[in-house]
């Protein structure tokens, strides 16, 4: 039997609409992929994790779940729900020593990221907002996923970690 020590929930779909223009079908699609996807993958796996020690769940979300922008209301609402769900899961699973965190990347150079930044001026604007001076890469995200998956992060749970090149500094 295969055991899962680290579960990474990473699914997303983006339909760009303002709140008032969001068709119900697109709302359902985004919430089904993003939230129900986490539920249907995590629910059966977490039961087996409860019997073991030091298990990890990482939910991928978006910086937009913390600070939405006009024109993407349903997407950012679903990503914000992932952040809160992560916090609640961390509290519910803490007695089983299951750590649950989420990652909140900004614009990452992926197919989805490039599709949403098809305007060179918009890309340049994002790069200027980054204190690092570039867009994020999948490797940038993978490094944080790796860290959260190890014992080095065993004091972290219920956190939403920004990976945004310094775009928001509190």
Q: How would you explain this protein's 3D organization?
A:
The protein has helices spanning 24-49, 73-93, 111-116, 120-129, 138-149, and strands at residues 6-9, 55-60, 98-105, 160-163. By secondary structure, the protein is of the alpha/beta class. β2 (55-60), α2 (73-93) and β3 form a beta-alpha-beta unit. α1 packs parallel to α2.
Question: H/E series, N to C?
Answer: EHEHEHHHE
What share of the residues lie within helices? 40-55%
Strand element count: 4
Order of neighbouring strands in the sheet with most strands: 1-2-3-4
Give the N-to-C terminal Cα separation.
45 Å
What is the average of the pLDDT values? 88
Itemize the secondary structure elements and their pairings.
Blueprint: E1 6-9, H1 24-49, E2 55-60, H2 73-93, E3 98-105, H3 111-116, H4 120-129, H5 138-149, E4 160-163
Parallel strand pairs: 1-2, 2-3, 3-4
Helix pairs in contact: 1-2
């Amino acid at each position: 039997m295969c055991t899962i020590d680290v579960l990474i929930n990473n699914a997303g779909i983006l339909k760009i609409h303002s709140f008032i223009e969001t068709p119900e079908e697109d709302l359902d699609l985004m919430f089904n992929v993003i939230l129900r996807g986490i539920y249907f993958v995590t629910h059966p796996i977490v039961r087996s994790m409860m019997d073991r020690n030091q298990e990890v769940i990482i939910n991928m979300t978006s910086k937009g779940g913390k600070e939405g922008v006009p024109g993407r209301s349903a997407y950012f609402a679903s990503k914000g729900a992932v952040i809160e769900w992560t916090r609640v899961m961390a509290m519910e699973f803490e007695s089983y020593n299951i750590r649950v965190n989420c990652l909140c990347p900004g614009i990452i150079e992926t197919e989805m990221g490039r599709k949403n930044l098809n305007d060179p001026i918009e890309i340049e604007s994002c790069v200027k907002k980054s204190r690092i001076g570039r867009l994020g890469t999948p490797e940038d995200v993978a490094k944080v996923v790796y860290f959260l998956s190890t014992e080095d992060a065993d004091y972290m749970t219920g956190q939403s970690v920004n990976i945004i090149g310094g775009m928001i500094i509190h």
